[in-house]
Amino acid sequence: MVDITEYERVVREYRAPLFKYCFYRLRDNLELTEETVDDVLHVLYRKWDSIDPDGNVRAWLYRVADLEIKSHLKKYERYYKYNESLEEALEGGKSRELQHFDEYFADNTPEEIYMEELRLRLPEEDREIFTLRFIEKRTIEEASRSIGMPYSTLRLRISRLERLVRAEIKKIFDE
Description:
Elements: H1 4-25, H2 30-46, H3 57-79, H4 86-92, H5 95-98, H6 102-105, H7 111-121, H8 124-135, H9 140-147, H10 151-174
Helix pairs in contact: 1-2, 1-3, 2-3, 8-10
């Protein structure tokens, strides 16, 4: 029999750290993290009689979380395995499998227009790096030689640029 007050105490104590752990492991996917944490707490409720609430509940929860994370990642990757670019789909002969996405994700704006809008939103000093790395798809080594910037410096700039790009993409789609 589940002692509701003790169960609620454990949930209050471990929900936030468990959420942070799952969020990191699930690659910052908020929806999947919430689902995983709920599943872990559901397992805790179902298995309440078999665990010692005064024992090492934290270790037990994290072990269950790891199993749930693995399970959710497998399901997630299986579900989104066809979520790839059109070029990759055409090269791999998967265009027929992508057609069902058209009615849900129909958009008349080509990728080039989004990329150009994104590039123009970036600071002037980052536009050339963005063009070389993300539009022309050059390696860091090739981009480094092309603009005459040391490899390690360029890697740091690209890392900062990736954060800027994520923020700008969020702004574009929230508008």
